[in-house]
Amino acid sequence: MSEVVKVVVDAMGGDYAPQEPVHAAVEAVKENSEIFVYLTGIEEQIQQELKKYQYPTDRIEIVPTTEVIETAEPPVNAIRKKKDSSIVVGQTMVRKGEADAFISSGSTGAVLVGGQVIVGRIKGVERPPLAPLIPTKDGVALLIDCGANVDARPSHLVQFAKMGSIYMENVVGIKNPRVAIVNIGAEEEKGNALVKETFPLLKETKGINFIGSIEARDIPAGYADVIVCEAFVGNVILKLYEGVGATLISKVKSGMMTSLRSKIGALLVKPALKKTLKSFDASEHGGAPLLGLKGLVVKTHGSASYVEIKNGIKQCLQFKKQGINEKIKEHIQEV
Amino acid sequence: MSEVVKVVVDAMGGDYAPQEPVHAAVEAVKENSEIFVYLTGIEEQIQQELKKYQYPTDRIEIVPTTEVIETAEPPVNAIRKKKDSSIVVGQTMVRKGEADAFISSGSTGAVLVGGQVIVGRIKGVERPPLAPLIPTKDGVALLIDCGANVDARPSHLVQFAKMGSIYMENVVGIKNPRVAIVNIGAEEEKGNALVKETFPLLKETKGINFIGSIEARDIPAGYADVIVCEAFVGNVILKLYEGVGATLISKVKSGMMTSLRSKIGALLVKPALKKTLKSFDASEHGGAPLLGLKGLVVKTHGSASYVEIKNGIKQCLQFKKQGINEKIKEHIQEV
After folding, report:
1. pTM value > 0.80
2. ipTM
3. Do B255 and A232 touch (CB under 8 A)?
4. Which of A9, A119, B151, B311 meets the CB 3.0–4.6 Å disulfide criterion with B286?
């Protein structure tokens, strides 16, 4: 048997906890014999869920905790005070090397703060970026950074470009990924102060395939694989993606209901359309890794289904097998 | 007869010049007897287009110019050197009070630079914002600022909120428009340095209906009428709107073509769908005004059809009739 990858799944995190995280754990270990899952959370609740399933019981273990961090809690306080929460206990296991990765659909703030404070940064990494995969016309792109720390420095963005390239190449499997910086025009002299300072640095950075600026219009079209930006802008892009998508789809649906003719048509196109739109759904692509930490931390949507969490667990396997952190360590110090 | 509003239309600007601007001028004067149009540009070319139409000839006048500013030219240079271009001549007419407004589908950079340098700012206006209307679920919102000047100060954003409110209330006709600032969370303590500094100022600003932060996800849903942001972020929002929309619609179309069943359905839903998607098309809503100038300058898309330009001309009429600039003058000095 090859090496087993140990993933801590936060059984208390997200809108559908503990059902979805527990279901995800069960499916993940059933689908892949190299995965071992620790479920952190209230023991009774987890056991009750686990009872519903048949699975290899030697590859899921409950780590009982007594506290739960709520989404609305101020993250720094929550991490400091709730020492026996599923998030703090799970991330501590990663720091101690008892597990390789931690995955949660819980409070984004708490997961990010815990990642930095408990798991800790790889030496040389200035700021760990949160990097979700977003759907494009024919694939996905990595949007780096969408985290909680805004107002980045140029050196941060250069590190994001390096870490993002390593992730896309090794976890997603895109050879020589195209790296671009979000800008308001294609020309090098355009942009705000941060972009203007960062652009020449990216041009000089070895080991990445920097293709220049990308306008927001060209992100969904798939013009780049690694989309580098400061977290405020990344957050706006990520959320507007969801917002425009949701509004447009609801308009398409209601547009189809305006006449008898179109209602009949809607019945006929529905199955094909559903399949197509699913490919444009961010939640199909697993969670967002928080890169540059001494272990892997993955954040899935608050509303994540077991499928998204399961895909996140599989990402962790790939992350570990490809030695992403070793590669980050190696490249982050180079200039 | 009531007062006539004089609009200069740049006949040389845009991908389909002079055809579309000339066609727009003709339709505008035919539809509304209060509109007078000056067409600036190469006389022969304009005359050739005008010949195609029947229209009240006493309300369109050609102002011949010999130079043309191309989209790729560096804007500051172009404005400085091409004194006899359709943009410089047209904007000079607005500055001199010979016309009320200038509208162009030409180089955005040149139109913005000219607006500031030639037309000039209203006293007290620190930075004139470019403010396009963007489609929302059931209407439109004003996205202010999407201009070329990035890295704004808090006082700029406060002025954007004021000017945007005046525009939405008086030109678009939305009573007591809801003003929100683009942010990465709903809480007041969230945001980058600029947003954190601006938020309390907006709360104290009299005469606007400030409702707090808006996350990008909620913009298409129509949670606010005036979306205040710094130009880099505004530019990203505007272009991502177009990008996600275009990619999703192309996916919906190709999704409908995957089976015989769905192809038949597509034929049936097509007319209804087309109508619905049109309402989500930014170009239906006329041009983007550059607010805070001593006259009105409107920028339409480079690819604008005569319908968009015509709608832009009508916006100018409304702008003048409602005395927007007088209202801006009055409110901009208040704190």
Report:
1. yes
2. 0.89
3. no
4. B311
